[in-house]
Amino acid sequence: MPDEFDWPKRRKRATPEQQELIDAELRKRYDDGTAIRGLMEQSGRSYGYIHRRLDASNVTFRPRGGDMRPSRRSADGGPERQPVRDPDALDARRADVGLPLADEALHALRSRLAAGPPAPVEEHGGPPIINLTDTP
After folding, report:
1. CB 106 within 8 A of CB 79
2. Looking at the whole model, is its pTM more than 0.70?
């Protein structure tokens, strides 16, 4: 897609008038959904430059992308096992370090989550207190 905007050459300081046009173009493209890294490629400027110019334009930044995969919860809200390339190798690695098989660990986790939070140990919420300083 050809870029109709006349981006200033790299390493050349933009005039205040050019900077206003650049800021408006960056804001428009960001508001239209272009990511900061996409704006970097289009403009030939650094990530920091783009971020500073958008910040100066009072743009409301979108949340970071991160993990956009579907939720790792099953239909009942519990954890769900995700596919792996080689499940047998995974179980072998888990066994080598003393961990249960993945299916067993997932079953145990689901059981613990279904049981709810553990009951408090005592009224103060911790282990029994032994006073070693008082003598009878």
Report:
1. yes
2. no
